Amino acid sequence: MGSLYIKGTRAMNHLIIAHLTESVTVNELKLFSRLFYRSKMAPKSDLLFIFPSKSILFEKTIAEEHNSFLKIFYSYQKNNSTSDFDTTHSKISNKKANESAEPIWGRKIHSNFSEENDITESTRMSYGSVVGFYADELDPENSLTGFLDNVPMSLRRWACYPMLLGRIRRNFKHIMLVDLKEILLLGDSLSRVKNLGQDSVLVSRITHSNVLSKHGRKKLENIQSNGKRQASSAIIIGGARGVRRLSNAMLTEIVREALERKKKNSVTESVLFNQLVGNEFILKNVELIFGESIAELSSLTELDKNSASSLMFMSQSSMVRRGNSNVDVTSFFKRYLRSFPLDSTAYGDC
């Protein structure tokens, strides 16, 4: 079950689970991967993709992006250049590496790191494993089809989490659930929950403009009248136990709502998620924390004209939301990557 695309250098404490909706393109997967590898999470996290269906092209893209990352890393290391890419956060001491367990993915092997991974006599390269699952592997019965006529990946992903999170519940301290199409990871987003307990879950707020675009003015008025804070289901970060409990509760909420409605296609993930986080009784075993709202790409409109401002934005933001902006995000970030000579060499399409 599942596919191991890249075996990491050691066992990690953090897991990022990125689901792909049906409309995700190869270019969007490439962009997500490239920015992830430039973030500070790649050296300390495993990355797991959940695909709506089998795609050889996506699998090929994942392997190519990792190889490009290694090429960039070793090029910067060889040229002793850290101004464009800080390699220090991608290295660990030999002592720590030897004390670390093997990655949980794939067959167990008992061997030392290859010479290629030895950066110096005292440090080694560190990066997490990259694995992938198809929705049919984690939810073989497509369990929500009995309640809904059409089950989009935005809903089915919640039926995939119980099997996955149940099997790895003792392997990771922190877990991130992220919508690959909606969120781009730029910095160390996991640092937000570093000192929180296993039952804690951090959700980000969304602005009224986001609610209007997704649910319409009438639903916004109903939500505001209830005095509930609005949260985004596009990214959820927290302790492994808290994230597992929240995901189980969300699956139950989807089924309950589907049973109560006459129209089986009227269930919307964002509305259900906000109903859930607003219900303290259902989530009484979860320490829910509302974080700051995530910047949308509309904020890049002016930055696109100013490279200095763009670099400052990238360095200060841990994540960004695509939203409904008209900004050509792919072109913007390609220009950003082209500003680094070695990156533009590794990425032929920049």
From TrEMBL:
Record-linked InterPro entries: DUF7780
Q: Which residues form the DUF7780 domain?
A: 1-290
Which top-rank group of organisms is this from?
Eukaryota
Recorded hits in PANTHER family, A to Z, give: EMB|CAB68146.1-RELATED, TRANSMEMBRANE PROTEIN
This one is known as: Uncharacterized protein LOC107777813
Say which species the protein is native to.
Nicotiana tabacum
